[in-house]
Protein: Amino acid transporter
Amino acid sequence: MAKWQSFIKNNMLTIMTVVGVLSGTAVGCILRSLSDQKWTPRETMYLMFPGEIFLRMLKSLIIPLLMASIISAVGGLDLSLSKRIALRSILYYATTTVCAVILGIILVITIKPGVGAEAAEKGGTSKEEEALKRKVLTQDTLLDLIR
Structure:
């Protein structure tokens, strides 16, 4: 019994993660089976909101955590080695950033995202349909404020 308690205590995060994934899958399957018609985009947005907030919180933790670990690792080294590593890190970061920017520009020029989307949207919609699409509810404003 003590082994099980020790195991559960040491692996609680993993266990809770698996339980969360399984319960989320079960709730999703139950909600999908209860509705016999297709969900509206607004209902889908309401269900996606908690996951979107969770992912934004994770993204906001990544950069500070990375910077803290790099600073801690470099600070633990001797001074002569730290200068070389710091210089290499800065050079590596600058190089990868420049490569990412160049790749992004090339892809935007090649793919041309958004071209033709306006013509497709304007082609088959009436003024009434456009008014319904632009309808913003209080709930939408509140969710945007929380985001």
The chain has a mean pLDDT of 84. The CA atoms of residues 31 and 37 lie 11 Å apart. DSSP finds seven helices and no strands in the chain. The longest helix spans residues 41-75.
